[in-house]
Amino acid sequence: MSIQIGFEDGEKDLDWIGLTEALKAGHNLPKAEIADTFLYRGKDTLLNRSAWIDGLGLTVKCATVFPENPSAGVPMINGAVSLFDDAHGRLEAIIDFHLITKWKTAGDSLLGALRLARPDSRKILIIGSGTVARSLHDAYSAGYPEAKFTVWSRTHANAEMFAKERAAVVADDLEVAARGADIITSATMSTAPVLRGDWLQNGQHVDLIGAYRPDMREADDRALQRARVFVDSFDTTIGHIGEVQIPLDSGAISRADLIADYYSDAGFERRSDDEITLFKNGGGAHLDLMVSRYVLERYAG
């Protein structure tokens, strides 16, 4: 019989640093075989993401993203996650979709920051004020316990609400906030860049989460040109996500400018305190599998 794991029951025994260790371990196994399909209807998206890692198992995650849902009082993102065992392909668990998405998305970014940001980073700017932004605050608070947070949102009232909930400071001017941050993490639904490369300062780390479609991006060409650029997976970002594919197609950057992903044997690291690092969180199905296995193991004890 398979186990059903709800959000609250599944989350109570998780911790962010433990998750980053599980993600590291997952990438030491044979490289995942992944298959993604995307269906579109206007702004609406159906993502079907599958992954198989020899020794870890299989997972299938279906997600619907309907950007207009919040105006009707319905969550923007819905879906389901199924985890299968590696030996026989049996259904082991059906896990709350929002639980896996929360911990996968923010954990991916935290791992990238722990490897690329300066260890003494203390000032963190969150661009966006939605559900993912709140998860990022939780994850980064675990990774950087002494950090002070600033939040910026196109909708000022949403930023104020976020700040009250998370003891953050609201930024009125995004450029000023970006220039003053050690880490900039962005989780918007933007199709046009909101972060400008001319604002970036030496030593910063930029973490880009929001773009997941070919027409979406959060940072301009200049940002990618000034930074050393990393991704979580070449397979799930190149050719799929506008954040890297649009500047690749235009010639603003070249394939050689994408330095490493989590599967790279070497090079996924900061070289100096002065360089700017930029990480694109693509959130592939292999990460859903790693997180699902971590959740089941912690749940089962």
**Which CATH top level class of the largest domain fits?**
Alpha Beta
Uncertain spans: none
Instruction: Name the beta content range.
Output: 15-25%
Order of helices and strands: EHHEEEEEHEHEHEHEEHEHHEEH
Please state the structural category. Answer: alpha/beta
The span between the termini is: 17 Å
Backbone shape: globular
Strand arrangement in the largest pleated sheet: 9-8-7-10-11-14-12-13
- Whole-number tally of structural domains: 2
How many individual helices? 10
What is the residue-averaged pLDDT? 96
Identify the quaternary structure here.
Answer: single chain
Gyration radius, rounded = 18 Å
Task: Describe this entry's structure for a reader.
The protein has 301 residues and is of the alpha/beta class. The chain has 2 domains: 3-101 and 286-300, ornithine cyclodeaminase, domain 1; 106-283, Rossmann fold (3-Layer(aba) Sandwich). Helices cover 34% and strands 25% of the residues. The protein is built from 10 helices and 14 strands. Strand 2 (33-41) and strand 3 (44-53) form a beta hairpin. Helix 2 packs across helix 3 (97-116) and helix 3 crosses helix 4.
